[in-house]
Design a protein that fits this description.
2 copies of one chain form a homodimer. Chain A is mostly helical and about 500 residues long. Chain A contains 19 helices and 3 strands. Chain A has 3 domains: about 60 residues; about 160 residues; about 250 residues, Methane Monooxygenase Hydroxylase, Chain G, domain 1 (Up-down Bundle). Chains A, B: It comes from Eucalyptus globulus.
């Protein structure tokens, strides 16, 4: 209901009990913009507060990222000394700018990334600088008329080729930044060379400022609470194993427990059940970390030539397993209705397979985490296989059990003289159980592949033997305790 | 067998037929380095040739990337005119460097990415420049002693905060580059301001060169064969649907066909079966494309506020479906042995479900590709559901059929008077079929979710209605024919 009252709008709403209620008339023209401004400012403040809240939460959960921020701050303050300290400024002058720029652009979160970018930057600058000076010399020999033409064409051709090369996967993975710096330096050198004659001196100064910037970055990133890409990859892999175990456990437990304790338990578990999603999305992070880890010197338990590629293989296997768990949890969720009485027969055996599989995954995770060959691994795998066999046997004996139950039920019915008679469960009702068994079988098969992958890694990376395990375990627990955090770590 | 002969090594190998054969003695010391050099050069040449081969293949399969290279070349050649043309150089001088730098850094593959980087760069530079000048002014007012201290502290604090902010997901997704440029410009301005007094004039010049560089980039990337992030995302999504259909078809066909025609067919199909892997790995690309697409102006069938987020939702659903297909193909591969005679009963019904599902996926793909509401979609979905019902019925009637067959077999056996008697198939043999049915059911359920997603997209994006379909189809076929290519497009 709407009524026009003397130039102002009046709103009236009908309340369910039959009465109608008059709403406050609209504000006058003066207070409109004021209200709009107020809501705008309020909205902005709320957004800023929410943003700060998020930032604070991130800082608390991952203090390493805050420390990284401070490290960059320190590096920049140090490099700006080039401007403040008179003797340094006298040597480098305006070229000190390149040191600042290098620090901003090259300083990355992990040591490996910083090293890779530094090497890329230095190599790209050096190559492009020498080529630029060469082209500039050739152009200057060919007369004033042809000089800009030669320079223009060379810039066009080299920039096109270098830009295209950045799409080639092998270049993209390792030298993307170097190619960009190559284009940048080449155009700057060959073009600015048209005016500046002291090219070689300038190139020397620029290279030395870049060298100073990169070495400062490398020094700070390696000395002040270093974050190694290798460590991150290592941690990602063993935490992903734990996540898979968590997911698998939660989804199977959900399926069997849900109907006794009601919905709340499902919601409690939903976060655990979804843990596999992190695993599914970790491919890009794993690849970039493995790429950066290659540049890193020996650190902690990792040698210079640590087999990082094996981590990628294990990561791929983990993702395949996660896929299977995803399907399992999907199937279990969609087929929850009916056949409650059938579930009971396989509950024990299924839970056993699940818990033994999780044991294997956790054993693998521990083995990777502590870089020791696990003494219990083969035992756990054996138990897992045995449990699977038991489950398959339980499914095999299901028809017999069902017939028995049916006979008992019909006897009971006859005793009670009721006409209702339970019929044999149709094959459709067994399908969900068969699927469960089949998917668990598949998951076990994939876990076995992961076991093989980890064994290969243990061989190549020369993991410590059984008897050294305990010492290493104690050490690594104290090392890793502070660095572990429970959030999804696919995007560091 | 090894024998020392007068200072040189002689190698002898035993050939299977009992004779032993003398190998060529080792080269003298003179020819060793020569051989090493030869093999080194040979290896290098081979590597370079392989690299060029790869680059050529990439160029042939995706000419758009070659064109992008040329576009960058053109932009750089144009921007270097600032150095060659005397009046321009007189205005901008050394600051022309910033235009070159802007072009190199800002020019990206898609229009959206270029726009996003340009806006980030301009905003970052402007904000940091004004803040830097402000801080510089405050510092200069506080006396010569405190000036470096204030500047140093402000650089440290702002650089730390901005670096940390780059880890916050919302900033990382949209303003990562802007934050970096902010740090860079702020340090350069506030620090170099210590020496240079003509700060404001310099800032103006720098901003105008950056404006020239970015507008040149935007102009070239939008006018010369533009590559829209929105288009790429759109294409990725509908091609992923086709890939899922291909994979599903190939893996089910493999399962049922393999044993009649032998192994070769499996190898032929393996590429098709693996097509889902591209879908699984496309998350990062989809997200960055959707991010860039938001910046793009209206183009082709897409408005400025095209619902790009819906594409991400559909992408996630596609990945879930791909996961299911992954598991299906894994299960089918690992359970190929045995129960050949059982397969026959469900072959027809399974193939029907599979082909109808693929029809739905292809119909969806066509609908998205042509941005028209499909007229046949509901019909196809109905057929798919009906086929699934048929398959489930077939599985239900399996026991009856098996008993019938058993009776017939035993009759035949009695007629032939043999003692061998086939026993009833144990439940274990039905499991693979039950799994197949169950997974197909799950896949159908997920495809239905995709259907819902596409219907929602069609509503939000105002897809054309049925009757306009034909015209649009003809248009888009001619438009898309040249841009479609069969490789995995997750990493453009």
């Amino acid at each position: 209901m709407e009524k026009q009252v003397l130039g102002g709008l009046q709103w009236r709403i009908n309340v369910p009990n039959g009465m109608s209620k008059e709403l406050d008339p609209e504000c006058s023209c003066y207070c409109k913009p004021w209200l709009a401004l107020k809501s705008l400012v309020g909205g902005l403040v709320a957004r800023v507060l929410r943003f700060l809240d998020k930032a604070w939460a991130l800082g608390v959960s991952e203090p390493k990222k805050v420390i990284h921020g401070f490290k960059v701050g320190i590096a920049l303050s140090l490099v700006s000394l080039f401007y403040y300290v008179r003797p340094l400024y006298d040597v480098f002058g305006g070229n000190a700018m390149w040191a600042v720029m290098t620090v901003v652009v090259v300083f990355e979160y992990t040591v490996g990334a910083t090293l890779s970018k530094s090497i890329n930057r230095a190599t790209g600058t050096f190559l492009a600088g020498s080529l630029g000076i060469g082209v500039h010399w050739v152009a200057s020999q060919s007369g004033e008329k042809f000089e800009p033409i030669i320079l223009g064409i060379s810039v066009f051709l080299l920039a096109s080729a270098a830009t295209f090369s950045r799409f080639i996967p092998s270049v993209k993975a390792r030298f993307d930044y170097g190619a960009m710096i190559f284009i940048l330096t080449f155009s700057l050198v060959s073009v600015s060379g048209y005016r500046v004659d002291k090219l070689i001196g300038m190139a020397q100064q620029r290279l030395s400022t870049i060298a100073i910037g990169t070495s400062l970055c490398i020094f700070i990133s390696m000395c002040i609470s270093p974050i190694w890409a290798g460590d991150e990859l290592h941690r990602l892999i063993h935490r992903n194993m734990e996540k898979l175990a968590e997911s698998l456990e939660a989804s199977v437990a959900n399926y069997f427990k849900d109907n006794q304790s009601g919905y709340p338990s499902q919601e409690d578990n939903s976060k655990k059940t979804q843990a596999y999603k992190c695993v599914l999305n970790s491919k890009a992070t794993e690849e970039s970390m493995a790429n950066f880890a290659r540049w890193e010197p020996a650190h902690g338990p990792f040698n210079f030539r640590h087999p990082w590629k094996e981590y990628l293989k294990i990561g791929a296997l983990l993702r395949e397993c996660a896929c299977c768990i995803e399907t399992l949890s999907g199937c279990l969720n969609s087929e929850k209705q009916g056949m409650e009485h059938l579930k009971g027969y396989l509950k024990h055996a299924s839970m056993a397979v699940c818990s033994h599989s999780c044991n294997v995954l956790r054993e693998l995770s521990k083995s990777v985490k502590t870089t020791t060959k696990s003494s219990k691994l083969y035992l756990s795998v054996g138990e897992m296989k045995f449990a699977l066999q038991e489950l398959q046997n339980a499914l095999k004996s299901l028809p017999t059990q069902l017939i028995l139950e049916q006979v008992l039920a019909s006897q009971a019915n006859e005793n009670k003289s009721t006409t209702k008679k339970e019929c044999a469960p149709p094959v459709m009702e067994v399908i969900p159980l068969a699927t469960l068994v089949s998917l668990l079988t598949e998951i076990v098969a994939r876990i076995e592949e992961i076991v093989d992958g980890v064994i290969k890694l243990a061989e190549l990376a020369e993991f410590k033997a059984f008897n050294e395990e305990k010492i290493a375990q104690n050490q690594s627990t104290s090392n890793n305790q502070r660095s572990d955090n429970p959030s999804c770590e696919t995007e560091p």
